[in-house]
Every structure is written in structure tokens, then in C-alpha cells.
Here is the input.
Amino acid sequence: MPHVTSPQQLFKHALQDMYYAEKALATTLPKLAQEATDSELSRAFTAHQKQTEKHVANLEKVFEQLGESAQAHPCPGIDGIRKEHDDFLKENEPTAAMRDAFLTGSAARAEHYEIAAYTGLVNQARALGERDAVELLQENLRQEKDALKKVETIEKRLLKSSNGGSKSRSRSTRSRSTSSRTRAKSGAR
Here is the structure.
């Protein structure tokens, strides 16, 4: 890639980065859907994979509007999230519940990355006066935000059920120790 010396080149570079990320995720999401044992989580990955294919198409339209061919530039951010996933599953033998909880965390990290990237792309497109690009990029951004909300909801449910009663036990333990400290302080006066 040539040196980036203008806002237009920076925008193109960011598009190439996101194009790579979306294409990588389009091939990764079916694998995640198969790894998930929670049916809602698996369906969410499948639904988001279809959205991701649309995101790829929207990015291709933006490239076309700019008079450029769609090209991907390696995205270390997404590659890192994918590597973290692969390494975790290789190094651990998580229960089905723990794997699902891990998958929701990985998905949330990817969504946060994409939200940040699309926010920057929308801002750059606005600054460059690329109105049609803004619309397409905002559509992708909205869907990424919705996907994050969905995965966070699933994550909360999974973590709550995997923790069982440990949350209430830790609250009662905390209450007892707070009461003991309060009694000790008042008795010391």
C-alpha cells in the first residue's frame, strides 16, 4: 500500500481494512454457530453471518462509488480476535456452557471493533462529502450495534445461569462482613 498522504487515501485504507474484516467474519461466523451449544447464540451467529454478507456488499458499493475496485487490506484487529478464539479453544477444554460464554465475549469484542471502525468510516465519508457512502456505512453501523446488544443480552443470560446461586452467596457473605465491620467500629467507640 502506498503511503497515506490525504484524507481520501486514509478513507480508502480504512475501507480496505473493514472489507477484510467483514470478509473474514463472514467465513468465521458459520464456524461459531456450529461451536455454540446454546440455540439462541447459534441462531444469532447465523443471522449475523447473513448481515455480514450484506455488509460486504455495502462496502463493495462504496468502493464502486469511489471509482475503486474492492480490495482487502489485512486487518490485525480482527485477526487478533480470531487468533485469541482459536488459541483459547486449543489451550482449554471448556464445558459447553463456558465455551458459549467465551464465544459471546469474543463476539462482543468483534462487534466493538466493528462499531469503532464504522464510526470512523462514517465520519470520514461525511468529511469527504460522500453522502451515498455515509448511508451505506451507517446501515452497517446500525446492524453492528444491534448485533452487540443481542450478544450482550445472550451473554448476560448465559453468565447468570452458569453462575447459578454463587452471586447471591457472595452478596450474603459481603453483607455479613459489612455488618461485622460496622459492629466492630461501633463497639470501638
